[in-house]
């Protein structure tokens, strides 16, 4: 359910999450196009301001993408998607055959349904792929998960059923193509405007560069190890997760009042420092 319907049952927690590499064990885009190594390099270049996640807000600029030099204006995600020539229905079939969920996500989702904790997927991927994968891997109850993502449209003179017949339709005109923070901000504004209403705790899990804008809008980020340095630098409260078993345990403890956000974030920062010291010792 989109905002404000999400708030009708007064949830204690709202859980926002990335999809690729967070709910799934691997990024679905690694099975198509130019693969994992170049995707990770594109993410690293985006974090280091060598490229933008997408190029420009206009359709005209994206159509001219192939002619762009490999410079700061390179759209790393558009390039990734344009490298995929497979007809779209075949893409979905291939991904359903190869992509696996984190083994504990289904348990987390079951707990969330039982405790009226909305789960909202915010993804820079594509809605029809995400929906197909969730229903395939979890079952029809996954249709209740709200997905906010990019869409897929036919290329001019072609259809999605054809080779090289589809392209991305970005969710918005931000530098990420989908600025995930835009979905979260209405919740913050709602409770700022209505301070007497009980405010739910807002949690986020993510592993990609497009998750960083969203992390600032929530109370706590469940981060993969690769983003810890950025979180520390930007002052974003975080804890490191290995899989959804640890996310479920921490979320349950927050839900039941066994711990609080400040404690979890402090423990997360302490653990990250210990890990960094161990790495330096090994070097």
Describe the structure.
The chain is of the alpha/beta class. It has eleven helices and seven strands. It has a seven-stranded mixed beta sheet, sandwiched between helices. α5 packs parallel to α10 (244-255). The model is unreliable at 53-74 (pLDDT under 50).
> Structural class, from secondary structure content?
alpha/beta
Supply Rg: 19 Å
Order of helices and strands: EHHHHHEHEEHEHEHEHH
Shape: globular
Percent helix: 40-55%
Number of strands: 7
| pLDDT < 50 stretches | 53-74
Order of strands in the sheet with the most strands?
A: 4-3-2-1-5-6-7
Strand portion, in percent? 5-15%
Euclidean distance between termini CA atoms:
49 Å
Short description:
With 283 residues, the chain is an alpha/beta fold.
Features:
alpha/beta; 41% helix; seven-stranded mixed beta sheet; 11 helices; 283 residues; single chain
What is the secondary structure topology, with strand pairs?
Layout: E1 13-17, H1 35-47, H2 59-63, H3 76-82, H4 88-98, H5 105-114, E2 119-126, H6 127-138, E3 146-154, E4 166-169, H7 181-193, E5 201-206, H8 212-215, E6 220-223, H9 228-234, E7 238-240, H10 244-255, H11 261-282
Parallel strand pairs: 1-2, 1-5, 2-3, 5-6, 6-7
Antiparallel strand pairs: 3-4
Helix pairs in contact: 4-6, 5-10
């Amino acid at each position: 359910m989109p905002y404000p319907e999400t708030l009708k049952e007064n949830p204690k927690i709202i859980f926002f999450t990335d999809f690729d590499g967070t709910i799934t064990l691997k990024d679905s885009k690694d099975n198509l196009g130019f693969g994992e190594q170049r995707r990770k390099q594109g993410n690293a270049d985006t974090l280091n301001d060598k490229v933008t996640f997408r190029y420009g807000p206009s359709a005209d600029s994206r159509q001219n993408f192939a002619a762009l030099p490999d410079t700061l204006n390179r759209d790393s995600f558009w390039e990734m998607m344009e490298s995929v020539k497979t007809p779209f229905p075949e893409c979905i079939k291939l991904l359903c055959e190869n992509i696996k969920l984190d083994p504990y996500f289904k348990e987390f989702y079951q707990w969330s349904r039982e405790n009226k904790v909305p789960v909202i997927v915010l993804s820079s991927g594509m809605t029809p792929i995400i929906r197909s994968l969730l229903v395939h891997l979890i079952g029809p109850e996954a249709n209740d998960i709200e997905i906010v993502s990019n869409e897929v449209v036919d290329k001019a003179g072609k259809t999605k059923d054809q080779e090289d017949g589809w392209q991305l339709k970005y969710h918005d005109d931000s530098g990420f193509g989908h600025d995930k923070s835009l979905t979260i901000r209405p919740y913050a504004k709602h409770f700022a405007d209505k301070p007497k209403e009980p405010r739910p705790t807002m949690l986020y899990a993510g592993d990609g560069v497009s998750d960083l804008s969203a992390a600032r809008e929530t109370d706590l980020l469940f981060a993969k190890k690769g983003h810890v340095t950025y979180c520390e630098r930007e002052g974003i409260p975080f804890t490191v997760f290995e899989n959804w078993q640890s996310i479920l345990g921490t979320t349950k403890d927050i839900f039941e009042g066994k711990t609080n956000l400040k404690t979890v974030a402090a423990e997360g920062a302490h653990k990250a420092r210990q890990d960094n010291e161990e790495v330096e010792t090994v070097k």
